[in-house]
UniProtKB/TrEMBL annotation:
It comes from the Bacteria. This is Ornithine carbamoyltransferase. Pfam families: OTCace, OTCace_N. It comes from Actinoplanes lobatus. SUPFAM superfamilies: Aspartate/ornithine carbamoyltransferase. InterPro entries: Asp/Orn_carbamoyltranf_P-bd, Asp/Orn_carbamoylTrfase, Asp/Orn_carbamoylTrfase_sf, Asp_carbamoyltransf_Asp/Orn-bd, Orn/put_carbamltrans. Belongs to the aspartate/ornithine carbamoyltransferase superfamily.
Length: 345
């Protein structure tokens, strides 16, 4: 895969708040750069002396560590700040904090949400990006998780090749005792719509996704030739699938009914060996972690030969490197050692 430096040049200095910020060509270019970094193991000083701040109000393992290591691989320094260690803990606003940090840093990576107030996290990130002179990257809010889904797409490509229309992907809700953000499925909807993918989303009637994302992804799919459908039966959805992707998300349609609705759905919405056996013989199991054995998925599936969750987790590093390189590389510098590539203009 040749790295498309010309397309990537257009990302320099931009924010990444959601996958709708990217065209299909830009998604493809980022994925090719991520594959290049993984294939070659390349480390460079592309982002030498760049300072990156990571402000998370929710804990993180994969996103935090992969961004810190990705920055180091590119010669930058990424430091993590806990909200409780800043003056945010005593009511300084996120807007004021962001304005101050942007005077010190070359980019801000934010994870910001509170699932008791759906939508406020994304609104806060959008506000901060509008007021920040440096790029803002969404490391998960209550609407989207673009960085995770870029790594997911990379993982699917490793199995099915670069044609996004090749695999049939099933994204299914599953029971979790913890209320989770719908950021991953929303970003999957936008990716599938933009890239023309064949995506089936399965969820109980009580757990529809945000109507705005359903509408936006349908419009994208109409233009791209993609197919996105919704069913309320996990087993029906999984039949003959190439990829089975599991994620729980909070009930958005009935405020206050989330815990009761999740308990009611517990029995029928878990990926077991029986469920995976309905998929194609070569089908793989994916989830973005963390997931609980016996809740979203049985241990036999999560730890079994069809599970590629740790390949998926590893690819967070390579996708993050591609994101940082494209958004933060100085003008006139090569994004990689790809001999067929040009310079970032």
């Amino acid at each position: 895969m040749t790295v498309d430096h010309e397309v990537l040049a257009g990302l320099r200095g931009r924010d990444l708040l959601g996958l709708a910020d990217l065209s299909a060509a830009e998604i493809g270019a980022l994925l090719r750069l991520a594959h290049h970094y993984k294939r070659t193991g390349e480390r460079n000083n592309l982002l030498d002396r760049r300072e990156i701040g990571m402000l998370f109000n929710v804990s993180s393992t994969r996103t935090r560590v992969s961004f810190q290591v990705a920055a180091r691989h590119l010669g930058a320094h990424a430091e993590h700040y806990r909200a409780e260690d800043l003056r945010l803990a005593v009511a300084e606003t996120l807007e004021d904090t962001g304005k101050v940090l942007s005077r010190y840093l070359d980019a801000l990576i934010l994870r910001h949400y509170d699932m008791t107030r759906y939508g406020e996290g994304h609104a806060a990130l959008t506000m901060l990006a509008e007021r920040s002179p440096v790029p803002v990257i969404n490391a998960l809010d209550d609407h989207e998780h673009p960085c995770q889904v870029l790594a997911d797409l990379m993982t699917v490509q490793e199995l099915h090749g670069p044609d996004p229309t090749a695999p049939r992907v099933v994204f299914t809700w599953a029971y979790s005792s913890r209320a989770k953000t719908p950021g991953v499925p929303h970003s999957w909807l936008l990716a599938a719509g933009a890239l023309g993918m064949n995506l089936t989303v399965a969820h109980p009637p009580e757990f529809p996704l945000d109507a705005e994302y359903v509408k936006r992804s349908a419009a994208l799919a109409q233009d791209s030739g993609g197919r996105i459908e919704y069913v309320d039966d996990m087993r029906e959805a999984v039949r003959d699938a190439d990829v089975v992707y599991v994620q729980s998300w909070k009930c958005l349609s009935r405020e206050g009914a989330d815990e009761a609705a999740r308990r009611e759905a517990h029995r029928d919405w878990r990926v077991s060996t029986e469920v995976m056996d309905l998929a194609a013989p070569h089908a793989v199991y994916m989830d973005c972690l963390p997931s609980n054995r016996g809740e979203e998925v049985d241990a036999e599936v999560k730890d079994g030969p069809r599970s590629i969750i740790f390949d998926q987790a590893e690819n967070r590093l390579h996708a993050q490197k591609a994101i940082l390189a494209a958004l933060l590389a100085p003008a006139g510098s090569a994004l990689s050692g790809d001999p067929d590539g040009g310079l970032l203009r």
